[in-house]
Write a structure and sequence with these properties.
- The longest helix has 25 residues.
- It is built from 7 helices and 2 strands, in the order ααααβααβα.
- Strands 1-2 form a two-stranded parallel sheet.
- It binds zinc ion (ZN).
- Zinc ion (ZN) binds next to loops.
Length: 159
């Protein structure tokens, strides 16, 4: 079970992860994390008007809908994706320090919102990794999107 990188702890007292730990990368950088962050803002009373309207509309709160809000310059939705980028950047800086990985390929549902989190992700990696500052690694968006797991499972069967 090595390299379960989504379950490294970023924030010791952070959001509860589905694995039972608190503050995992996956609890901050996944489609489900985007929805959770929006719900937290709504419960705390800090959500933007756009996010409150979406929640009151009766439509299901999804990462795709939060993404659409972010594209419409909604401040809460944009902050949620900045948080996603900071979590990814923090984790990637750690992975560079541990493994010196040259190319990161990010997949999964949250990656569809790449344009909303890439700036804060790259800023966070640069802030935290001197290795990166001297020699930036590649961070790429997977062309398989959220289907990478299915392709991996199929490949195992072909082998
Ligand atoms: Zn976890």
């Amino acid at each position: 079970m090595a390299a379960e990188l989504g379950h490294v702890t970023l924030y010791p007292e952070g959001r509860l992860c589905a694995c039972g730990n608190k503050g995992c990368l996956e609890a901050y950088a996944a489609a489900s994390a985007v929805v959770k962050a929006a719900q937290e803002m709504l419960q705390a009373g800090t959500a933007s008007e756009g996010l409150r309207k979406l929640a009151a509309s009766g439509l299901k709160l999804t990462s795709a809908r939060v993404y659409e809000l972010a594209r419409e310059n909604d401040p809460s939705a944009q902050e949620i994706y900045r948080q996603v980028g900071r979590a990814l950047g923090l984790a990637i800086a750690n992975f560079i320090a541990i493994f010196d990985i040259e190319t990161f390929v990010l997949g999964g549902g949250a990656v569809d919102a790449w344009d909303m989190f890439e700036k804060s992700m790259f800023e966070e990696v640069a802030r935290r990794s001197y290795v990166w500052r001297n020699d930036p690694r590649k961070i790429l968006k997977s062309s398989l999107g959220s289907h990478a797991g299915i392709f991996g499972a199929a490949y195992l069967a072909f082998q």
